């Protein structure tokens, strides 16, 4: 098997490629140490292990490695079950106090039962969207239960963010992020928070977005919030999630042909994965597709391009900071009181 992202993608794929994979994985030169490292870096190690099991290929994995990967997947499976229990408690709490809410991203996919194995997906925080009018009420409910709010950054303290600072409980596994909006910039024609709340469904006592909205959220979170659209980078976790969701729905052609973010996401994904749904096929030209493919497979070009984009993002962030400094007296005072931290930030120090 070649040491490439495409090799990991073939394992994650829902294409009927078991015979081909058996030949590749069973080759004497198969480097399983590389497989563990590469899949871990892409955030899909437990996903890849579960897919190998679902494809009946675990007999090709050594006993020691199988035990190692099985152990990690079991830990993740138990962790996800614990997170889901916490989500149910939070959902009951908000329902009891009349707070209109919906859980999103990883926990929503987990609660919706989209994955064949609870151990497949690595979950970070518990994300939920609430009506802006109930934002601080929801936060206070958790503070009353001994959740502790993280200290906001100097910049974030004076600039309204899409979610409140993370809330952590000493006896709970998941940190909670309460969102008033889902994206760092408003794109109402593509993702409307009010519509997501209105169209929510309930599964296993938990409010989640419908499958179409889940797909839009994961794509736009990757493309907008994580700068995937600018970086032109392929997020394997998001790609796999989209493939899982495509087994539940047939994406709307209109949405994907009008949103530039969807088009870029699918173009990047198509470099490694075959689409399952007709509506998810992108319409970008072959020139654009080849450029993205080259960008993601050439290490030197990738590093140069990423560096330039990050400089651009940094300049935009600095410009926003300057505007805030000019307009906001309290921000100017905070900058002066924390000038040593600001100097370190400009120097790139932690």
Low-confidence stretches: 253-257
Structural class assignment: mainly alpha
Distance between the termini: 40 Å
Basic shape: globular
Mean pLDDT, to the nearest integer, reads 88
Q: Write down the Rg.
A: 22 Å
Helix content: 55-70%
- Number of self-contained structural domains: 4
The second-level CATH architecture of the largest domain is 2-Layer Sandwich
Strand order within the widest beta sheet? 1-2-5
CATH topology assignment of the largest domain: Beta Polymerase, domain 2
- Tally the helices: 17
User: What can be said about the biggest beta sheet?
Assistant: 3 strands, mixed
Tell me the total number of β-strands. 7
CATH hierarchy, class of the largest domain: Alpha Beta
Query: What's the SSE pattern?
Result: HHHHHEHEHEEEHEEHHHHHHHHH
Tell me the fraction of residues in β-strands, as a range: 5-15%
Question: Overview of this structure, please?
Answer:
The chain is mainly alpha-helical. It has four domains: 1-61; 87-209, Beta Polymerase, domain 2 (2-Layer Sandwich); 227-297, no CATH class; 300-347. Helix content is 57%, strand content 7%. The protein contains 17 helices and seven strands. It has helices at residues 5-12, 18-25, 32-41, 45-54, 63-96, 105-111, 135-144, 193-198, 211-225, 228-231, 236-246, 253-258, 260-269, 286-297, 299-327, 329-337, 339-347, and strands at 101-104, 126-130, 148-149, 167-168, 176-179, 201-203, 206-208. The strands form three sheets. It has a three-stranded mixed β-sheet with strand order 1-2-5. The chain is globular, with a radius of gyration of 22 Å.
